[in-house]
Each structure stands twice: as structure tokens, then as C-alpha cells.
Write a structure and sequence with these properties.
Number of domains: 2
CATH topology of the largest domain: Rossmann fold
CATH superfamily of the largest domain: HUPs
Structural class: mainly alpha
Helix content: 55-70%
CATH architecture of the largest domain: 3-Layer(aba) Sandwich
CATH class of the largest domain: Alpha Beta
Bound molecules: adenosine-5'-tetraphosphate
Shape: globular
Number of strands: 5
Strand order of the largest sheet: 1-2-3
Radius of gyration: 21 Å
Oligomer: single chain
Number of helices: 14
Largest sheet: 3 strands, parallel
Strand content: 5-15%
């Protein structure tokens, strides 16, 4: 029998989880849970690379855990822990910092985008991908299921692992990024030229659908969704059809129908009908998640117990790799 593959993935507690997070990442974490050895992490150390109000962060970490469990992460099948509770993550980061050329980090497009929006850029923001490499490499991860925005960071993780292995001897497995066939990059509903993102959603009311949004909130965002002046409801890469394409992609990811079936279904219909039907599919998807979330949040102690037990198990699993890395580097 072949050993189960080790899966690691993380999500930042930086705001309200949105449909892009669900379709690009969480939906598949849940769907593939039975197949793999899963480690999921609420990456709060990544969150603080941009300023977070401490009280808001505290609440968002628990909310993140509740939402992930409500989406179907099963603590019997997967570890679900908070990154700052496993000190091996920042410890390995220091070791990896020392083998990572700074030019590799300055080239990261996410860093360049985020840095351009800041008056003062923290060292942590530049170092974000090295912390992410540590998260992944600590567990000898095989697969990292993420959205397309993380592709460059996964490639960097492999480069860092390879460089470390070359310098100090075989230490880390080389992970592989796994991207969804449908919905690897869900775009903003107000602006389909930018990725749907928690940070934008915090400021722009009609940018995203949050997983805890009420049916009225979902419809309020959907009815204002950007489309175009045409009337064809078809999948298309044309920049002018980006809004319609995004709505159809969301519909496809949530219904698992083929593009042909979907185009046939919408043939002759107006954009108003498309928006209503996409909203309905979203509302139907979110309803059981929200019911479960409300139940889970009644019992904060049970939630904390899951996080604590997972953190203890994660720490035990991370320890041998951290020890090996330190030994290989010459520490006594
Ligand atoms: N729009 C998206 N489409 C598909 N997948 C997405 N992911 C994020 N946005 C999309 C995937 O969700 C996982 C968690 O990523 P994150 O915590 O970095 O989420 P975010 O929404 O990108 O959060 P922020 O705080 O707003 O970060 P920035 O500013 O970096 O966008 C990942 O697997 C990610 O690929």
C-alpha cells in the first residue's frame, strides 16, 4: 500500500472569508480530505505582515476556525491549527532566510503589489514567502492545494528547499502546487480585472460575497456585479466579457456542470437572470455552512480544544524536520 500524500495549506485570518477562498481552496480541502493526510493552518503570522487591530485579529482567528469547520474540515481527518501556536514555523523561517537571496523575494509579484500600496513596508511583508515555505516544508508536504495567486510562492518554496538541500544535504521534500480546474482565480464582482480578495472586500462593499453573508447581502452584491454592454452569456477569455465569465465560473464551480450545459441553460436569457441564478446557487451553498457555523460558535471551548489538540499534533510532526534542518546546518 502506498503512503497517503501529505497535504498542507493555509489561510490568513485577515478578514471575512469569501467565495474565492472557498472555490479556490477550501472546497477542495474538504472534498479531498479522505484521500490524504491533511494539515490546514490559520496563518496569523502571515496576517500581521500588514497591520491588524489585535482585538479584530483575535476574533477573526476564531471565526476562521469556525468557518473552516463549518465548510466541512473534519478534525478526525485533518489537523486544523493556528500558526502562531507552533513555534517551529518562525524558527525554520530564520534558517531558510539565511539561504534565500533577497532578490528572489523582491521579485515576488504579490510583494510588489502590496508594497506599492504601503507608505512604509515591513521586513515581514518581504519575508512572507519564506514563512510560507517554512509552513509547507516543515511537514514534508507533497501537495499544496491553493488558488492561482499562490503559484509563484510555491515555485519559490521549491527553489528554497532545493537550495537548502544542495547546500546542507537532503532535508526537505519538494512540494507540488495543486490548483483547481475551475475557479483557480475568482475575480472581484465589482471589478473583474482584479482577484477577489479579503483586503479589498474590507473596503469595497460590492467586491466579494462573504461566506457568512445573508441572502439579502448576496443579492445586493450580485445584482450590482459588473457585466458588459452585450447580451451573450458565454464563457470567454475576452477582457470585455470578464464579468460574465466570472459569474459563469462561479456558477460552474458551485454546480459542477460542464461549460456546454451551462451555456445551453442560459441561452436566450438576460444578464439579470444570470445574476439571479448565480445568487441563488451561492445562497444554497452558503446556507448549510452558516447553520453549522452558528452552532459551532455557541461552544468556544470545544473550538479552542480542537485548535489546541491540532497545534500539539502539528508541533510533534514539525519537530523532526526542524531538528534535521538544524543538525544539517551544524547546530549542536
Ligand atoms: N480570488 C481567489 N480565487 C481563488 N482562490 C483564491 N484564494 C484567495 N483569493 C482567491 C485562495 O484562498 C486561499 C487563502 O488565501 P488568502 O488567505 O491569502 O486570501 P486572500 O483573499 O487573498 O486574502 P487577503 O488578506 O486579501 O490577501 P491578499 O491581499 O494577498 O489577496 C489561498 O489558497 C488562495 O490562493
Amino acid at each position: 500500500m502506498t503512503a497517503r500524500k501529505i497535504v498542507f495549506s493555509g489561510i490568513q485570518p485577515t478578514g471575512d472569508f469569501h467565495l474565492g477562498n472557498y472555490i479556490g481552496a477550501v472546497k477542495r480541502w474538504v472534498a479531498d480530505q479522505a484521500l490524504h493526510d491533511n494539515i490546514f493552518c490559520i496563518v496569523d503570522l502571515h496576517a500581521i505582515t500588514l497591520y491588524q487591530d489585535p482585538n479584530v485579529l483575535r476574533a477573526k482567528i476564531r471565526q476562521a476556525a469556525g468557518v473552516l469547520l463549518a465548510c466541512g474540515i473534519d478534525p478526525q481527518k485533518s489537523l486544523l491549527f493556528v500558526q502562531s501556536q507552533v513555534s517551529a514555523h518562525p524558527e525554520l523561517t530564520w534558517l531558510l532566510n539565511c539561504v534565500t537571496p533577497i532578490g528572489w523575494l523582491e521579485r515576488m509579484t504579490q510583494y510588489k503589489d502590496k508594497a506599492a500600496k504601503q507608505e512604509s513596508v515591513s521586513t515581514g511583508l518581504l519575508d512572507y514567502p519564506v514563512l510560507m515555505a517554512s509552513d509547507i516544508l516543515l511537514y514534508q508536504t507533497d501537495y499544496v492545494p491553493v488558488g492561482e495567486d499562490q503559484k509563484q510562492h510555491i515555485e519559490l518554496t521549491r527553489d528554497i528547499a532545493q537550495r537548502f538541500n544542495n547546500l546542507y544535504g537532503e532535508t526537505f521534500a519538494l512540494p507540488e502546487g495543486i490548483f483547481p480546474k475551475v475557479g483557480a482565480r475568482i475575480m472581484g464582482l465589482d471589478d473583474p480585472t482584479v482577484k477577489m480578495s479579503k483586503s479589498i472586500a474590507t473596503d469595497q462593499k460590492h467586491h466579494a460575497v462573504g461566506l457568512l453573508d445573508s441572502p439579502d447581502q448576496v443579492w445586493s452584491v450580485l445584482k450590482r456585479a459588473t457585466t458588459d454592454s452585450g447580451k451573450e452569456i458565454v464563457f470567454s477569455d475576452a477582457p470585455s466579457k470578464a464579468g460574465v465569465n466570472n459569474l459563469l465560473t462561479i456558477y460552474q464551480a458551485l454546480t459542477d456542470q460542464t461549460q456546454i450545459e451551462i451555456e445551453k441553460h442560459f441561452e436566450g436569457k438576460l444578464y439579470g437572470a444570470l445574476k439571479r441564478e448565480v445568487a441563488d446557487v451561492i445562497i444554497e451553498t452558503l446556507a448549510p455552512i452558516q447553520t453549522r457555523y452558528n452552532e459551532l460558535m455557541q461552544d468556544a471551548r470545544a473550538l479552542d480544544a480542537i485548535l489546541q489538540s491540532s497545534a500539539e499534533q502539528a508541533a510533534a510532526r514539525a519537530a523532526p524536520t526542524l531538528r534535521k534542518a538544524k543538525e544539517h546546518m551544524g547546530f549542536v
